[in-house]
Amino acid sequence: MELVKVLGKGTYGSVELYRYKQKDGSVIYNAVKIIDSENYGTLDQEFRVLSELRGSPCIIQLCGNSLVQGTDCNGAKVYKMSMEYAAAGTLSNFIQRNRTKLSHSVIKDFTRMILQGLVSIHGHGYVHCDLKPDNLLLFPIYDKETWNCSYQLKISDFGLTTRAGDESDCWRAHEPWVGTAIYMSPESVRDGTTVEKTLDLWSLGCIVLEMLTSKQTWSGLGIDAVKALLLDEEAPKIPETVPCDARQFLEKCFARKPEERGSASELLLHPFLTGDEKMGSAAAAPGERTGMVLRLRNPPPISKDIPTKPLKLKVISQKPQQFKKVSNKPRKVKILPPRPPRSDFVPVQ
């Protein structure tokens, strides 16, 4: 096992990249989340949730059956959780790398994957509580023939995940946020103590709007200003440039009444996501070269009324056009005397 680099640091720990060399000589990479002993409970809870979600294609997967105890460089006790490594980084990094707006096909593909992950999370009775681009990981997938790149998106970081209907341990009176402030819903600020699945759908709306505009929701506003807007049940403004189907989807996510947002399963059937389903889900990054997709159509059936034998053509020779000789002699003109005019009137006596 060899440390490659530190992927990130947070309040309670860090995530590091390790390289493993197997017996056959191949090399695999794992991301390892490391937490100090004081915050062991948070990591243990996340490990338990991820263990329940094993096999879900849109959820980050564990690479082990238990937490590993170790020590850091200072000799302090730490606990480690090994996970699969997302070589393409986070959705936040992806948006920043593509300075122009993401294509609508990419946005729709990523939105579907987030919702599919939420269906798994909510189906097990959990609320993620901290859905944001920094916690959405991208795994590159290369076509071996064309080397075109697509991405598999997976939800990660379940440190704040709570049972639906339970009270959140993260909510505080002076910091009324269940998760990250700018992605939180009005009810999380107003009530805060209990969390429901619809909280994640508001956060999803913030993420989709960020993908459409390349800007974070409530951009330029401080925490207090955001808090005041949410207490007034204000939703992020949707630019007029956003297409109609995407606008309707966002309005559904930003419904003031949580029950009007529906469920993750229902949102998967929204016209915003089902309109171009037949075109496939090639989530290639904007600006990258992609091969053309050719569809071969079957030839139309041969009608029985049309003979299949080749037709014989009769070629008719064309004779040169004949012209009559015109005489050059002057022609005689016969002049007739004028006739008396005729009248239709009847004389009156």
Automatic annotation (TrEMBL):
Positions of region (Disordered): 317-349
Xref: InterPro entries: Kinase-like_dom_sf, Plant_MAPKKK, Prot_kinase_dom, Ser/Thr_kinase_AS
One Pfam family here: Pkinase
GO biological process: signal transduction
UniProt superkingdom: Eukaryota
Domain Protein kinase: 1-273
GO molecular function (one): ATP binding
Annotated protein name in UniProt: Protein kinase domain-containing protein
